[in-house]
Design brief:
This protein is α/β, with parallel strands linked by helices and 449 residues long. 42% of the residues lie in helices and 10% in strands. The strands form three sheets. A five-stranded parallel sheet has the order 1-2-3-4-5, with helices on one face. It has a five-stranded parallel sheet with strand order 9-6-10-11-12. A two-stranded antiparallel sheet has the order 7-8. The longest helix has 30 residues. 35% of the residues are buried.
């Protein structure tokens, strides 16, 4: 186009230039403007149209620049995504998970009740949903390191008290295992050792809310060789963790956390010194020789119920997250089981969790620096709780809060719709990547290598 413009310009310029020379027939007696009027007019018109020509045919760079910017931005975005994918798969040793596509009676049919995907046991739903859309999922079972069995057993809510009833859990899971072992060879090949289940209940895969019954029933035999993702975990021998397990956090909606923090920032004013809202029995009942919370919550109420520094409430309140985000310390005593959703809510909303549950194993202990973001008080030391909190408030509270308010800590304990680097489902995959010795695919490579 540049050469073409030069040619056009040279030709018109040559024509105008020739007209400036005098011919033999021209008369010299006329005034200058009259004599050269035609030439001046021609020159002006030629210059005008020549300028219009160049302007109309000049290559437009605005569209090109826009396109280049758009493509550059897209290339950058794609390179980041690809780089993250490569890095992520590298960090997790190119982990591959096959997700069984079971009949809907085992999972999605339960979602007709909205609570199924939002209550504290809903990690079984969240992990399944995230894996279904994850790049770590493989549709070829021969490529898989692990096999995820998506059975929702926590969505059968009681019509009496609204709590999940899990009496059907063993039969439903047994039915699922019978199905997958009859249709595909992978369960029998490893006796289920590379298969993964979620058991997000009080006592995990023992499937009972009362510890004595849970311990008596134990983990179903067909699951004992598998990997169980469960909220229950203790640092001592217990029948409900007699299987390969990963301690996971209870489910707390990340949307609810985000909504609360959008109204009250995590580093905002905290005018509640110590907070607890939940079941606290004034006169604890003897249930099969056991007392709820081992009477710890009753002792907290008795000792600190009239202490103005302690904000203790026994009844439910839908907006209780707004109380957590206003609190400095959040008490996390055991209930029937050692773990509590308050643990995750406290961390997510920046309130220092005070863990009162002897011997508890906490979620993702190899990743989350629990000793730097929480306090632990022995069950028998509840009477000293006020002194402990006063001491921390006067010494290293700001350091604990600085660690606690790290976004990465919050992310590690929350399940999202898609797997996000560093979130709870990601941490599950990290934990599985440390158990690749159970992978039949890896053992085959080693044998052939």
């Amino acid at each position: 186009m540049g050469d073409m413009n030069r040619l056009v310009k040279n030709r018109k310029g040559f024509y105008v230039k020739m007209r400036f020379f005098k011919t033999k027939n021209e008369k010299n007696g006329k005034p200058f403007l009259v004599r050269y009027f035609k030439w001046v007019l021609w020159f002006s018109l030629s210059f005008y149209f020549f300028g219009k020509f160049l302007n109309g045919h000049e290559p437009s760079t605005s569209g090109l620049k826009t396109t280049m910017v758009k493509h550059s931005h897209r290339a950058l975005s794609e390179s980041v995504v690809v780089r993250e994918d490569k890095d992520d798969h590298g960090l997790l040793n190119d982990l591959k998970v096959y997700v069984y596509e079971l009949p809907t009676k085992y999972n999605s049919d339960w979602l007709s009740n909205e609570r199924c995907s939002n209550h504290l046991f809903a990690s079984e739903v969240a992990i399944h949903k995230a894996l279904m859309k994850s790049d770590f999922r493989t549709f070829d079972p021969t490529e898989a390191d692990f096999f995820f069995v998506p059975v929702y057993v926590s969505c059968n809510f009681s019509t009496v008290n609204g709590f999940p009833t899990i009496g059907h859990a063993r039969a439903l899971l047994s039915s699922a295992v019978e199905l997958i072992s009859s249709e595909l060879p992978f369960w029998k090949r490893s006796n289920g050792s590379d298969h993964v289940f979620v058991a997000s209940h009080d006592y995990g895969a023992c499937f009972h809310a009362m510890e004595d019954r849970a311990m008596a029933d134990g983990i179903p035999e067909f699951m004992k060789n598998s990997i169980i993702l469960q909220t229950f975990g203790v640092k001592y021998q217990h029948p409900c963790q007699n299987a390969e397990s990963v301690v996971i956090p209870p489910y707390i909606s990340p949307k609810s956390v985000q909504s609360t923090l959008s109204k009250m920032p995590i580093d905002g004013r905290r005018d509640i010194f110590a907070f607890f809202r939940g079941k606290m029995e004034v006169h604890p009942k003897n249930v099969s020789g056991r007392f709820y919370s081992k009477r710890v919550r009753t002792e907290i109420l008795r000792k600190y119920g009239n202490d103005r520094r302690f904000y203790l409430k026994r009844h439910r309140f839908p907006g209780y997250q707004s109380e957590i985000v206003r609190s400095v310390f959040c008490l996390c005593p055991l209930g029937w089981a050692p773990w509590s959703p308050r643990l995750v809510e406290s961390v997510a909303l920046g309130c220092v969790p005070v863990i009162i549950a002897d011997g508890i194993r906490l979620p993702f202990e190899s990743t989350v620096p629990w000793s730097n973001i929480s306090l632990t008080v022995r069950e028998n030391d509840v009477a000293k709780l006020g002194h402990v909190l006063d001491h921390v408030a006067a010494t290293n509270l700001s350091a604990i809060q600085h660690n606690l308010w790290d976004l990465q800590i919050r992310r590690a304990l929350l399940f999202h719709d898609d797997v996000e680097t560093g979130d709870a489902t990601w941490e599950v995959l990290v934990a599985l990547s440390t158990k690749l010795g159970r992978s039949h695919r890896r053992s085959r490579f080693l044998a052939n290598g």
